[in-house]
Amino acid sequence: MVSIMGASGSGKSTLLNILGILDNYDTGDYYLNGKLVKDLSENEAADMRNRTIGFIFQSFNLIPFKTAMENVALPLYYQNVSRKKRNDLALEYLERFGLREWADHYPNELSGGQKQRVSMARALVTQPKIILADEPTGALDSKTSAEVMQILREVNQSGITMVIVTHEKGIALRTNKIIHLKDGVIENIEINNPDLIDFNTEIK
Amino acid sequence: MDFWREIFMALSRNKLRTFLTGFAISWGIFILIVLLAAGNGIMNGISEEFSDQSKNTYMIFSGETSKPFKGHGINRDIWFTDKDIRFLENEAQHVDQVSPTINSSGFAYFGDKSCSVNMRGVRPVFQSISNVDLIEGRLLNERDEKQSEKVAVIDDALEKHLFDNGISPIGQFIIVNGIAYKVIGVYEGDPNSSGGGALVPFSTLKKITNQSHYWMLRFTVKGLETKEDNEAYTEYLRTQLAHLHEFDPNDMSAVYIRSTQEEYLQTMKIFNTFELFIWIIGFAMLASGIVGVSNIMRITVKERTNEIGIRKALGAKSRSILASIVTESMIITTIFGYIGMWLGMVVAEVSRNILKTAQEGNNISLNIVPSIDIRIVIMATALLIVCGVLAGFFPARNAVRIKPIEAMNYR
Question: What does each C-alpha distance from B70 to B77, B210, B242, B245 come to in angstroms?
Answer without folding.
Answer: 15, 31, 11, 11
